[in-house]
């Protein structure tokens, strides 16, 4: 059972060498009797920016850190974990039958023994010819849900409003922009390469897009695209982009603080925010959120987004890496913008 482990705790941006592919042990492809567990074959793994918070030696978060390799006596528990799509192979849990497909937290390994301890993190999924299975990690998974919950529950969008999205071509951003367009908004996205900017304008239906790496002055860039100001900023990056957006918000604007992927280290506070004062005269609402607080609308999200996709009203871009051995590179690529769209790793064929 090949698996990817964390070698050492990381503070700052993880690198490929912080992880290691281990050949693992030979395992019996059976769920032990009396264990109430079930064995799955992992098919697709999701790479998500939040995973770096589990690579830190920090126990105060809502998820515990991964166990790094140097704690050798706990070898069986060492593995990186994240969302995945998997097929049940054997089961000692009457609720799971061999052959069924699931989406939930699984190990970065070929086979995982799972236990349904948290219903919210595990759901059964059906094959649907119209929707790729891996989309349960992106469009129909945590990333898509973050876009949906963040946009509708936090941003309070109204038709005709102006919306700015950062990391706009990524797993979350690309859906935020498309939902905003369906909502009758004017939408501009920022991204880190010409290829991504072209996708935003030509494939994802954004009204405008720009490469923030080519802008010496982010405030001036936002003024160019929003001469009358921004109603909604969906912030995926934090840092200097958030600071520039604060200068360009309209009165009563809303900022959804979704993520701060630009932070070099999660133990520092947001670097370089000088313009927060604007929140007062402009009566801005800045709200941080976690998608997991909105699970009550998950069924509604699935229904709406599946329908939009099947009707051709939205598209979704995925970046697929082939093989478990490429998973560390795929994960660290998120922090330099290597991924074009939702980053997924194919571990085995369906
Ligand atoms: P993406 O698919 O967007 O991948 C990350 C992207 O971030 C990269 O492609 C890159 O795009 C951009 N990026 C990387 N480093 C920097 C930097 N230094 N400055 C600016 N941009 C950078 O990831 P997701 O869509 O999965 O996640 C987007 C955000 O949403 C993250 O901050 C994540 O933590 C957050 N999130 C929050 C959740 C919640 O519940 N609040 C749940 C899920 C995600 P580019 O090339 O354009 O720079």
UniProtKB/TrEMBL annotation:
Ranges of residues in domain Alcohol dehydrogenase-like C-terminal: 171-306
UniProt keyword annotation of Oxidoreductase present: yes
Gene3D superfamilies in the record: Medium-chain alcohol dehydrogenases, catalytic domain, NAD(P)-binding Rossmann-like Domain
PANTHER family hit by this protein: PROSTAGLANDIN REDUCTASE, ZINC-BINDING DEHYDROGENASE FAMILY PROTEIN
Domain of life (superkingdom): Eukaryota
Protein's UniProt keywords contain Oxidoreductase: yes
Annotated ranges, domain Oxidoreductase N-terminal: 2-117
UniProt entry keywords in alphabetical sequence: Oxidoreductase
Protein's name in the database: Enoyl reductase (ER) domain-containing protein
Pfam families, A to Z: ADH_N_2 (PF16884), ADH_zinc_N (PF00107)
């Amino acid at each position: 059972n090949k698996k990817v482990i964390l070698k050492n705790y990381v503070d700052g941006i993880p690198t490929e060498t912080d992880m290691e592919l281990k050949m693992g042990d030979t395992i019996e492809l059976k769920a032990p009797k009396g264990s109430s567990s079930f064995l799955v074959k992992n098919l697709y793994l999701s790479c998500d920016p939040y995973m770096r918070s589990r690579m830190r030696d920090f126990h105060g978060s809502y998820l515990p850190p991964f166990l790094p390799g140097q704690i050798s006596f706990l070898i069986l528990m060492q593995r990186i974990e994240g969302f995945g799509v998997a097929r049940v192979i054997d089961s000692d849990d009457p609720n799971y039958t061999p052959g069924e497909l699931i989406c939930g937290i699984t190990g970065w390994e070929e086979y995982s023994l799972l236990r349904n301890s948290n219903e919210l993190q595990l759901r059964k999924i059906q094959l649907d010819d119209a929707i790729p299975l891996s989309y349960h990690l992106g469009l129909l998974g945590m990333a898509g849900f973050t876009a949906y919950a963040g946009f509708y529950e936090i941003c309070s969008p109204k038709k005709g409003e102006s919306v700015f999205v950062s990391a706009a071509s990524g797993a979350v951003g690309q859906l935020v922009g498309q939902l905003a367009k369906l909502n009758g908004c004017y939408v501009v996205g920022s991204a880190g390469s010409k290829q991504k900017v072209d996708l935003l304008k030509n494939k994802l239906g954004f009204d405008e897009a720009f490469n923030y790496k080519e802008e010496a002055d982010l405030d001036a860039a936002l003024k160019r695209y929003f001469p009358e100001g921004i109603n909604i900023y969906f912030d995926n990056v934090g840092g200097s982009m958030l600071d520039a957006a604060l200068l360009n918000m309209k009165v009563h604007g809303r900022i959804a603080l979704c993520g701060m992927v630009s932070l070099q280290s999660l133990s520092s506070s947001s670097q370089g925010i000088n313009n927060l004062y604007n929140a007062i005269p402009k009566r801005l609402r800045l709200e941080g959120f976690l998608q997991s607080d909105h699970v009550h609308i998950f069924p509604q999200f699935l229904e709406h987004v599946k329908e939009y996709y099947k009707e051709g009203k939205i598209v979704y871009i995925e970046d697929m890496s082939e093989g478990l051995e490429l998973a560390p590179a795929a994960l660290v690529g998120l922090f330099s913008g290597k991924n074009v769209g939702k980053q997924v790793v194919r571990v085995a064929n369906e």
